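Q: Give me the 3D complex with NAP.
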Amino acid sequence: MRRIIIVAIAKNFVIGRANGDMPWDVKEDFEHFKKTTMGYPILMGRKTYNYFQKPLKGREHIIITRDPNFDPHFPEVKVFNNIEEGLKYAETIPKDRMFILGGGEIFKQVLEKDLADEMIISHLDFEAEGEVHFPKFDESKWEITDRDRRAQFEIVYYKKK
Ligand SMILES: NC(=O)c1ccc[n+]([C@@H]2O[C@H](COP(=O)([O-])OP(=O)(O)OC[C@H]3O[C@@H](n4cnc5c(N)ncnc54)[C@H](OP(=O)(O)O)[C@@H]3O)[C@@H](O)[C@H]2O)c1
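A: Here is the predicted complex, encoded as structure tokens.
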């Protein structure tokens, strides 16, 4: 199963606000995100899940939290106490890929531990205000396989070398 990070990053590497808000509203990127992830398992940190308020349609949710009593309020949502267990569970789902949705804490650990195979990054054309950043990653470890220019951003497809 291919493990794919999907994220939108402002020019200054901001991905979100401390209160959970996304600092921008780019409809075309949301549509790209929805189309790309639809039908596949999605793994995310508890904070990102909480900000959604309810599960996204058509995608199996895997939530990571250190809280052994965390209640996702939706019985179909799976909860694990570390990233590796969540990824192991994803492997049991008969799909050829899964998406890692963030947020900042999850991206940092996934990159440090070398747990992702690919990244689909929407590089936004502007800087944004926010406290949560995408980690600086070692570009020499990744090859760019495709680029897709849109009105306010460019989608860059990365594959682990
Ligand atoms: N631009 C984008 O594409 C994008 C995508 C996703 C999110 N975001 C933004 O990112 C922000 C959220 O990111 P964040 O860094 O604050 O939070 P996060 O990564 O979504 O979630 C952090 C939480 O995940 C759990 N966690 C993290 N590492 C863990 C581990 N090793 N084992 C067990 N549990 C672990 C902990 O939950 P507990 O506290 O429950 O233990 C932790 O508090 C928001 O602003 C959101 O809008 C942006």
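A quick observation: The pocket of NAP is lined by residues 7-8, 15-17, 20, 22, 44-48, 51, 64-67, 70, 81-83, 101-106, 109, 132 (CB under 6 Å).
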